[in-house]
Amino acid sequence: MQLVGDNGRGLAAAVFYAVCSSSMAFLNKAVMNSYEFPFPFFIMACQMLVTVLFLEMLGSLGKLSLPSYTWKSARSFLAPSMGYAFHATLSLMALQGMNIPMYGAVKRCTPLVNLILAVVILRRPFPSFTLIVSVLTITIGCFVAVLGDLTFDGFAYTMGGLSVLAQGLYLTLVQQCAESQRSTWEILQLNSYNTLAPFIIMSVLVREPENIVKSKYISALNSALTTSLVAVAKSVIQTLVGLFVFGGIKFHPLNTAGIVMNTLGGFMYTYTKYQEKREDKRQKTEDENFNEVRVGFHPLSLQGTPDKSGEHSLNDIKVS
User: Fold this and answer.
1) Chain segment 82-108, per-residue pLDDT in tens
2) CB 319 within 8 A of CB 297
3) In this structure, are residues 189 and 55 in contact, taking their beta carbons and an 8 Å threshold?
4) pTM for the whole structure
5) For the region Disordered, what residue ranges are annotated (predicted)?
6) Is the distance from CB of 150 to CB of 101 less than 8 angstroms?
């Protein structure tokens, strides 16, 4: 019964991995192509941030027990993390210029890299003949499919090939770390923390945030107030995350009150600036309309005689 239970959990984990992996391919493809959001470093930074927050939340609720993130543990897992960072970024770049079937075909070449690295790094015995034939069949089939791809993109396929090498290295190093008694959750924690900062730095260096701000997602889809509130919300999230990660802070009533006041002031400032801009725009529109009326007014078009008060009625005034 225990064997059946273990096999069932293993099968469930494999199915869950397959569903998530396939879904991410479609989701990333839709984000970058259909929604025209080609910012791979920003996307990966967001994914790592969500993972970090999810793990921290589970730890705060007592649902998960993880060791503290330290520089020592970070250095010990640095190589696998960098392999993952390269793999994830290169995969997104490849997916941007490849269709999903060909992307999947290229990614299926990863076992070939894993077999080689397992022998070289993990000192595993040479694989069986049947296993070698199956892996070579996958690889040859990929090359044949590439030759028949009418939408061939050299840059995308180059990024896809490099991502296969990076993924093979990453999976091999993770397997090596798992053999050193590290749990899956601990590996996920180390990988998320280690890659979050590099993704953010690379996103800033290639000016992705600036391009995102200039994109239609901010200027066309949202109003000025929405854009401003999103900026304030970003600072709020940044503050909340900073309270708990990298050692956090020691809570004090004055410190907490100051942060709350600072946040409320930010919302008040944003709303006030928005109201002022809207009032200025309204006043400018009224001034333009008034000037148009004055330009179009012709004294010679007055008809009729003035009344006793020397004033003309509205019907006596013609505006061209």
Assistant:
1) 999 999 889 888 888 887 778 888 888
2) yes
3) yes
4) 0.59
5) 278-320
6) no
